[in-house]
Amino acid sequence: MRTSALALVAAAALAAGAAQAQSATYAIDPTHTFVTFEIGHFGTSTNRGRFDKKEGTVQFDKTGKTAKVDLTIDVASISTGTAAFDKHLQSADFFDTAKFPTAKFTADKFVFNGDKVSEVTGMLTLMGKTNPVVLKASLFNCYQNPMLKREVCGGDFETTIDRTAYGMNYGIQWGFPKDVRLVVQVEAVKQ
Questions:
Q1: What is the mean pLDDT of the chain?
Q2: What is the CATH architecture of 23-190?
Q3: Is 152:173 a contact under the CB 8 Å cutoff?
Q4: pTM of the predicted model as reported, rounded to 2 decimal places
């Protein structure tokens, strides 16, 4: 009886070890990761921009279908293609990058459709305020990168946030929309 109990404990320990071995750390690849935004401009066109500097990690367990993400964005790296507009967006009217140089997204609630991530629920911290966001996946895949000789996982995700929830109220009185569409293209390399 004692031997079979020990065998069960040993088997459980091995199974737990195998499950933990499935979890891996992936580093965000800044050359294949982009955070872009879109906001209407007087109902006529759409202003677009992106943040060029970002870093972070993803803890991903494909077998257990769990994950955690930690992404930091250098908000001063905003790029719209127009230097004057970038400077205005960095000012206190919008992102106030002198006071709030980074934004952060953290998440540990992932929804899977089969082996594919379909949704990520987390918290976005922007301008010192933190609010929940849900990123919907339009693409997700893992592949063996032939150049890096490592596994890479990633996808395209999007959400819409209310910028006024973060204290970004500039232009509301003139009819600028408060809703901002965020599109996140991310790839992360297994470490």
A1: 90
A2: Beta Barrel (2.40)
A3: no
A4: 0.86
